[in-house]
Amino acid sequence: MTLRTIFFPILGLLLLGTCPSLAAQEVGKLDPPPGFPPETKNPAAVAKNPETMKAYEESIPGTPIAFRMVPIPGGGFNMGSPAEEEDRKKEEGPVHEVEISPFWMGVYEVSWDEYQEFQFSFDITRRGKDHDPSQQEPWADAVSRPTPPYVPMDFGMGVDGFPAACMTQFAAKQYTKWLSMKTGRFYRLPTEAEWEYACRAGTTTAWSFGDDPELLDEYAWYFDNADDAYKKVGQLKPNPWGLFDMHGNVAEWVLDAWDKDFYGTFSDEAADNPIHWPETLYLRVVRGGSWDDDPDRLRSAARTPSKKGWKVQDPQLPKSIWYLTDAPFVGFRVVRPFSPPQEEERSQYWEADLGDIRRVESGQRQGER
Hints:
This protein is of the alpha+beta class. It has a single domain (56-365), classed as paralog of FGE (formylglycine-generating enzyme), CATH 3.90.1580. Helix content is 17%, strand content 12%. The protein is built from 8 helices and 11 strands. The chain has helices spanning 22-25, 112-119, 122-125, 137-140, 169-183, 192-200, 343-350, 355-365; strands spanning 56-59, 66-72, 75-79, 96-100, 103-106, 251-257, 271-272, 284-287, 303-305, 330-331, 335-337. It has a 4-stranded antiparallel sheet with strand order 1-2-5-11, with no helix packed on it. A hairpin with a 6-residue loop joins strand 1 and strand 2. The longest helix has 15 residues, at 169-183. Residues 1-25 have low confidence and may be disordered.
């Protein structure tokens, strides 16, 4: 990547205006009730079978925010890029057949409008004395939330309608947990295979709109047209399945660990919803390329590993489990599988998968920064 230099002020320039209220800082110290919260009422989000899945809008209870989801049909595809694809990298192959179960996916990348409700506990601080609590609040209020950032993490690029960025994969996963608790529906990050399947939207070309990079300006924000910043979500053309900004704007977290040789581990049989669960903090995968990338990094098959350098200017020791001080090009979007996992399996998609992160999170729940 060719990330422009961004100056990150150190501890003395802590912006107190970004801190949540004292009441909000108590969030995440509670224990949730047993089980999973009941679903909020949303008939459009209910489907008896994959054939009846449809697009829907989800309002986040206790907030003025709503987001849109579209159904992604199940099916098979060839994951990776063929050897003859221009600018193809070795880690994009060999091409292998994958079967994907149906799911819904966010039409847009998660915006700051959505993410800051979770990040700063706005859904709690706006509650007044006449507040009528929802059934889901005891679960949602118990979810761990980010510590206050040292500077606004949009780095001056914009908040209203812009994609959220600079969060760690753990922070993105905790957002999906909070969203699940708020709505009673199971949301998570996509797997790498789901992401590429949805990005391609039935195509086999380098980008979802074809092989001609001259068309990229119609679909993506990238190095040549973004003026050194991300843009508001949904401003350009969507892919064939109605998903905006799958190429460019911000790169998007998926659940998988990075392994340049992972595709070579598959047999001749189609892989069924594969996922490469992480066992170390580095490296993990982001997809889609960003406003700071060249066209080849925006191809449907392009894979990018996370890097320690994405936190190099973080002044904290240990470095934050929530923020990427040097990656204003990384965001995410959410998915919702038609068939969610059993309750006892859901934490694998949300929680810290490393002891070091769990220890820091536990300390913060006890009041440590």
